[in-house]
Amino acid sequence: MSDQPSQRPESGQAESPAPPGFEPPRFAAPSGSGTTSQPQYGQGGYGQGGSGQNAFGEPGQYRTPYGQPAGPYGQQPGPYGQPAGPYGQPAYYGMQAEPKTLSIASMVCGIASVIMGWILLPQVAAIITGHMALKREPAGRGMSIAGLVLGYLCLLGYGALWLLAIIGLTIASTTSGSGYTY
After folding, report:
1. Rounded distance, CA 105 to CA 179, Å?
2. With contact defined as beta carbons under 8 Å apart, do 64 and 52 qualify?
3. Contact 174, 138 (CB under 8 A)
C-alpha cells in the first residue's frame, strides 16, 4: 500500500513514454565572459585523467579525483582521503565528551536526599560534590547546580525536621518526669 512502483526500471521493464507536449531540457552554456577556459599545461580538468582514458570511465564505475580508489558500494571517498561513512555521509570525528562524573554524582545525591533525607548523608554528599563539580567541570554545570539546590533544600527541610524532633523529644522527656498527673 505505497505510492512507489512495485518494480524498478532496471528490472527489464521499459519506461513509460513521455507525456504529450513534454520536451527534455536543452543544454545551455554557462553565462559569463563568453570565453571557454582550457586546462593549462596539459592537465585535465577535475576528475579527468591525463592518460588518454575516457573522462567518464566505464559504465557503472566511478572515478575519483587524485587517483584515489573508489569507496565500497561505489561511494566517493570522504574529504581529505577519509573513507566514506555509511549511506554516503562524510566521516566526522568530533571532540571527546568532557567528563561529568562529579556533576552526575551531585545530582544523584540530591535526588537521593529527597527520597531518604532523614539520614542527612546524601545532602552533605550532594553539596560537597556539587561545589567540586562547579570548579572542575564546566560542561556539567546544570547537573551540579541541580544537585546543590536539592542538597541545600533537603538539608534545610530535613534539618529543621530533625531539630523539631529533638526539641519535641526533649520537652516530652522533661515534662513526663515532673510528676504532673491529671
Report:
1. 52
2. no
3. no
C-alpha cell at 15: 519506461
* Tens digits of pLDDT across the chain (182 residues): 556 655 555 555 555 667 777 777 776 666 655 555 555 555 555 555 445 455 555 555 555 555 555 555 555 555 565 555 556 555 567 777 888 999 999 999 999 999 998 888 999 999 999 999 999 999 999 999 999 999 999 999 999 999 999 999 999 998 865 555 55
What is the rounded (10 degree) CA torsion for 5, 10, 15, 21? 100
Q: How far is CA 138 from CA 29, 149, 152, in A?
A: 56, 17, 20
Dist CA 141 CA 67 (whole Å): 49
Q: What is the pTM of this model?
A: 0.46
Residues 68 and 54: beta-carbon distance below 8 Å: no
123 contacts 154 by C-beta, under 8 angstroms: yes
Residue 1 one-letter amino acid: M
Cell of residue 160, nine digits: 529543621
